[in-house]
TrEMBL record:
This is N-acetylmuramic acid 6-phosphate etherase. Keywords: Carbohydrate metabolism, Lyase. Gene3D superfamilies: 1.10.8.1080, Glucose-6-phosphate isomerase like protein, domain 1. PROSITE patterns: SIS. It comes from Inquilinus ginsengisoli. Its EC number is 4.2.1.126. Residues 50-213 form the SIS domain. One of its GO terms (molecular function) is lyase activity.
Length: 295
């Protein structure tokens, strides 16, 4: 198994100078990012399959154990503040429970019965999307989650770093980031972890873009929860619609600080008309603005 094999490249690393160690570790991180490129077609296919389901109200479920589970949970936790994806349509199945996000829970990753039971408790359906992440690709807990999700009719996606990983037989979509041997054998928080973070970043960002949460590279469904983000909302709105700061702040106030709705208000809609227009456009700001321009 590549991720568990000691590499000759790093033999004697504990005797090297600090600068040599850091240079070698950075080299390994760059290789991990490069390992994601061959997976781009598979990522595109998985996102294309996932977006319509989530657009119909399905839940996005992240599953994993250890470092993989923590990386998966980190990706999911950013989706509400960044894209406005609702908390009640996000679920986390982490071996050992939420306590395992901050400290190791012994043997939890081997508990397939727990993975199966926790997945079944969610009462998954056809519009739900389950992403299972396992560096080795053989984690019993994560495999059991994907197997239960598949039986329930949910869309399943497996992310792993070893070719031919057993988990790939449990999912409809297979994402392989073949990172190979780690600088410290078995420490998959290094190369495999970096690749997992990149894979999940790419997948979730593409899905959120296809769900209409991005306009011209702006996160227009961002949640402005502090002064910095309120100022960012003003800048975003002014980048979309040519208005001064006073008009932008007035439009945001009328729109309840929703940038997409504020863009329609600043373009001449009332807040009520803007809500209807956005709903008619499926939440797609570009389509909604084009409808105003056609009037």
């Amino acid at each position: 198994m590549g991720t568990e094999t000691a590499s000759r490249r790093y033999r004697g690393i504990d005797t090297w100078e600090d600068a040599e160690i850091l240079d070698a570790l950075l080299e390994s991180q760059l290789a991990a990012v490069a390992a994601v490129r061959p997976a781009l077609p598979a990522l595109a296919a998985a996102a294309a399959d996932a977006a319509p389901r989530l657009g119909r109200g399905g839940r996005l479920v992240y599953a994993g154990a250890g470092a993989s589970g923590r990386i998966a949970a980190q990706d999911g936790s950013e989706l509400f503040p960044t894209f406005g994806h609702p908390h009640d349509r996000l679920e986390y199945l982490i071996a050992g429970g939420t306590g395992a996000l901050t400290r190791s829970v012994e043997n939890a990753e081997d508990d397939a019965d727990a993975g199966r039971a926790e997945a079944e408790a969610l009462r998954l359906g056809a519009d739900d999307v389950v992403v299972g992440v396992a560096a080795s690709g053989g984690t019993p807990y994560t495999r059991a989650v994907l197997q239960a999700a598949s039986r329930a009719g949910a869309l399943t996606i497996a992310v792993a770093s070893n070719p031919g990983a057993p988990i790939f037989g449990d999912a409809a979509h297979v994402i392989l980031a073949a990172t190979g041997e780690e600088p410290i054998a078995g420490s998959t928080r290094l190369k495999a972890g970096t690749a997992q973070k990149v894979v999940l970043n790419l997948f979730s960002t593409l899905v959120m873009t296809r769900l209409g949460h991005v306009y011209d590279g702006l996160m227009v469904d961002m949640q402005p929860t502090n002064a910095k983000l309120n100022d960012r909302s003003v800048r975003m709105l002014r980048a979309i619609v040519p208005v001064d700061e006073t008009a932008a702040r007035a439009a945001l106030a009328a729109a309840g600080n929703n940038v997409k709705l504020a863009a329609l208000v600043a373009s001449g809609d009332s807040a009520e008309d803007g809500r209807r227009r956005l709903a008619g456009a499926g939440g797609d700001l570009r389509r909604a603005l084009a409808a105003i321009q056609r009037q």
